[in-house]
Amino acid sequence: MRRKLVNGTVRGRLSDGTPNPIDLYVGSRVRMRRSLLGMSQERLAAELGVTFQQVQKYERGSNRIGASRLWDLAQVLGVSVDFFYQDIDTNTIDQSPRKIYAHPELSEDITEFDMDMLLRRDVTALLRAYTKISDAKLQKSVLDLIEALAETK
After folding, report:
1. For residues 7 and 14, what is the distance between their CA atoms, to the nearest angstrom?
2. Taking Cα atoms as reference points, which of 65, 1, 53, 54 lies closest to residue 27?
């Protein structure tokens, strides 16, 4: 059965069949948070009552995440629902088939920081280790060290 086209899209996909950029973004935020927690796709799937393949599809944006599932994801991952939309850029929003426009405070310019960096395993491992440092002064010292090393190129 062929899906019905609505406004040039198939159920929120672009006319070429690729997933809605907002779905891709939300999926990347799910993956980032799960990775930061050190949680496997299998464990997240078990917590949600779905298969790990479904979690993979959510993270890739190939399956859309409904409102109730997004709520469940937020609860399991320990974040608010708005976490999944934080720092979304206007370019992503403008590519949405529905032309949804964000509030200015949600469309902060992220050109200086590549959000895909947060998906790298070494970056998530660094963030996970950094957040485990309980001493605020030591945490600040580690940050200062990293920033100093970054400036030495």
Report:
1. 10
2. 65
